[in-house]
Amino acid sequence: MKLPRLACFAPRAALAACGLAMGIVPGLASADTIDALLTPPETGIPSTAKNDLYPQVTCTGVNPALVSDVIQLASDTRETLTPLLKLGPAWRYPVHIILAAPLRTPGLDAQGESVSVVADGKTLTLEAQLPSTAPNAHEFIQRQFVTALLWEKFFKPDTTFTTATRLDVVPLWLVEGLREMLNSDPTHAREEIVKRAALDGRAPTLANVTGWKELSTDRLLSLWQRTFCYYLVECLTHPDARLVDFQGWLASSTGPDSKTAEYLFPTEMGWQGELRDASNRDRPLVYTWDDSAAELAAAETIALPKGKHADDTQLCTLDTVATFPRSKDLDQAVSLKIFDLTALELRVHPSWQPVIELYRFGLTALLHDPTPQRANQYLHEARVRRAEEMTYHEKLVDYVNWYEVTQNAPIQASHFRDYFRTAQELDKIEPDPAHPNPLRADLLKVEAKF
Predict the structure, then answer these.
(1) Which one-letter DSSP state was computed for residue 204?
(2) More confident residue, 399 or 23
(3) Could you give the CA distance from residue 428 to residue 221 in angstroms, rounded to a whole number?
(4) Which pairs count as long-range contacts for 402-407, CB under 8 Å and 24+ apart, including other chains?
(5) Measured in whole angstroms, how far is the alpha carbon of residue 440 from the centre of its chain?
(6) Which of 121, 53, 61 is nearest to 91 (CA)?
(7) 360-383 in b/e burial notation, b at 16+ Cβ within 10 A?
(8) Chain segment 68-123, per-residue pLDDT in tens
(9) Which one, of 299, 171, 168, 281, lies nearest residue 235 by Cα?
């Protein structure tokens, strides 16, 4: 797209063609984002504020609290990305955000946002406007900041901007990937999306991800795109050895020995391997109880070749593998599964370790014991222990919920009337060892064990 010297406000669809992909899309943002702070009263008098540390960033709006939040967001964005991108001390290209009064700004697109880029010699000025009540303002504003920061890497300091200057040198996957990295994801939803897509065989190819030019207007498809953009950037910046190559590529974009992004990318087979490894990213060394249960559920399937030419597969589970006829293919698949369970046992919650250990013992006996009795015994015991662990955990969760409701909230303000009524009835019943109340007995048993 040719860059005019002075660009007027244009809708997101027009700017998407130049690779900016400016648009309001839902994101994995934390609770303290801009869109969560849209309640302070508006003064009705527009005012402009600038960042004291970075005066190149300004914001105009009728809500002083929101204007202040935008200025702070600019500081947070630059300070977080500076070590990753090796940025200079100041914003090279000014950014101006306008928080317009809602429903009073003609000329905006259907979603209420617009972006303009003004070229003036050696300077690019990015100006974005949106209603002050935009539901996803945080993502939209943050996208402008990330784009302006990437311009500092893709354009030389002495670049003179003309109508021949192209803005699509900054790829969508890089803008959205970095922007997503700025936002926390405590539940690992992004990794879960990638993992499930890889298991289902529906993950986009590397060529698809790097070829995206704009974000979809569909909420779910947009989330899908941003997730894989994030994951590509995550793969290219971790571990540290990859980060050095990534930073070298960014530095070369304005240097004499320019490199294309392709030399950073893994092969398509390597990309698929990275996708399958999604569950190991951003996880603690030891899984939580829920994560351990999910990982065991994901690992319990065993794929066996079927047919003379292994052109088909049949599936079994840890609980049913002993019923399948022994074969070379079965032994090989079981050996690989033992390796997987050994690695998993090192990271699961302590409550799950005995269960996985029994499954591992059962598979080992299946390989090396000529009679199936020992393997069946181990696998049966593992199945029983697994069910007991699930049942016990459910009771524990019920107990914690009951305790929280009855002990930490006033009865008059609670919506859990049944919980309170049950607790009060239990308190009226005297413990009778000969005829204990079943519910009370369970609670006391769990409480004692807890």
Answers:
(1) P
(2) 399
(3) 55
(4) 402/443
(5) 41
(6) 53
(7) bbbbbbbeeeeeeebbeebbebbb
(8) 999 999 999 999 999 999 998 899 999 999 998 765 545 444 457 889 898 888 88
(9) 281
Instruction: Enter the pTM of the model.
Output: 0.58
Please give the angle made by the CA atoms of 382, 385 and 389, to the nearest 5 degrees.
135
d(CA 102, CA 129): 11
Closest CA relative to residue 21, chosen from 207, 167, 203, 184:
167
* Total residue length of the chain: 450
Q: Residue 237 and residue 332: Cα distance in Å, rounded?
A: 35
**Alpha helices in 63-121, H assignment, sequence order:** 64-85
Q: Name which residue leads in pLDDT, 436 or 136.
A: 136
- Distance, CA of 165 to CA of 161 (rounded, Å): 6
Rg of the chain in Å (alpha carbons): 29
Cα–Cα nearest to 361, from 333, 381, 344: 381
Tokens of 230: 């994030």
Mean pLDDT of the chain: 78
Encoding tokens for residue 290? 């829920």
